[in-house]
């Protein structure tokens, strides 16, 4: 069985250190051969977002030097709304039936997982790797809890099968969001704001944002 490939999607508007902490935890805990970061094209649950070319480039700058990670532009190149099920179908066709795929999501995404298109079919294409922060309690609807319990497995299951399991990824919480980053960038710059930005976003990404006057 080939080593698993991870898939981490999102708007990444912009990418910040919380995203990168999740990506690194997934690589290490799941022993991934590679992790594909997939910037959303036209996410149906989001409003206006920054041009995908900028978001993809910021991702590339953020992961530069980490050979485990790469940016996959499949959703940016696909027309229409971006649905995870379509992305997984495309990736499954690309890697073949025998390679394990792991869709990496946060606990908050798991709590709304039953609002995703064809959510019950996702495990036919990939495993789910759910990030758990400090043993935080998942608050799931009854159907989601039954789904979670039925498919839960230990981490090593992602190396034994190509898809079908829900596994948990332990990670240290990072108190940062893209909303906070955007707010700091729009605000009048203060020494405290500059220090906070330096702590929550990679320097190369911050330089890119300012060079292209994003979020102002």
Structural write-up:
By secondary structure, the protein is an alpha/beta fold. It is built from 9 helices and 6 strands; from the N terminus they run E-H-E-H-E-H-E-H-E-H-H-E-H-H-H. It has a single domain (5-211), classed as HUPs (Rossmann fold, 3-Layer(aba) Sandwich), CATH 3.40.50. Helices cover 39% and strands 16% of the residues. Strands 3-2-1-4-5-6 form a 6-stranded parallel sheet, with helices on both faces. Strand 2, helix 2 and strand 3 form a beta-alpha-beta unit. Helix 2 (52-63) packs antiparallel against helix 9 (203-211). The longest helix has 14 residues, at 17-30. The chain starts with a strand and ends in a 5-residue tail after the last helix. The mean pLDDT is 94.
Q: Which descriptors apply to this entry?
A:
216 residues; alpha/beta; Rossmann fold; six-stranded parallel sheet; 6 strands; 39% helix
Short description:
The chain is an alpha/beta fold.
Task: Give the secondary structure arrangement, pairings included.
Layout: E1 5-10, H1 17-30, E2 34-39, H2 52-63, E3 69-71, H3 84-95, E4 101-106, H4 107-111, E5 127-133, H5 142-151, H6 157-160, E6 166-171, H7 178-186, H8 191-200, H9 203-211
Parallel strand pairs: 1-2, 1-4, 2-3, 4-5, 5-6
């Amino acid at each position: 069985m080939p080593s698993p490939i991870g898939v981490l999607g999102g708007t990444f508007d912009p990418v910040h250190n919380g995203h990168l902490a999740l990506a690194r935890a997934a690589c290490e805990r799941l022993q991934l051969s590679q992790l594909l970061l997939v910037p959303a094209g036209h996410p149906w649950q989001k409003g206006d977002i920054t041009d995908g070319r900028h978001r993809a480039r910021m991702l590339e700058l953020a992961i530069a030097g980490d050979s485990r990670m790469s940016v996959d532009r499949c959703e940016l190149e696909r027309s229409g709304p971006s649905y995870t099920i379509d992305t997984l179908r495309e990736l499954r066709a690309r890697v073949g039936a025998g390679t394990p795929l792991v869709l990496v999501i946060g606990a908050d995404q798991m709590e709304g997982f039953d609002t995703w298109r064809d959510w019950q079919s996702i495990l036919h294409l990939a495993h789910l790797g759910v990030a758990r922060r400090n043993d935080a309690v998942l608050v799931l609807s009854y159907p989601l809890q039954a789904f979670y319990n039925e498919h839960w497995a230990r981490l090593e299951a992602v190396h034994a099968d190509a898809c079908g399991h829900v596994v948990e990824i332990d990670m240290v919480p990072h108190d940062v969001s893209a909303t906070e980053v955007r707010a700091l960038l729009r605000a009048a710059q203060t020494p405290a704001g500059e220090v906070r930005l330096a702590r929550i976003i990679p320097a190369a990404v911050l330089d890119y944002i300012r060079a292209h006057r994003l979020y102002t």
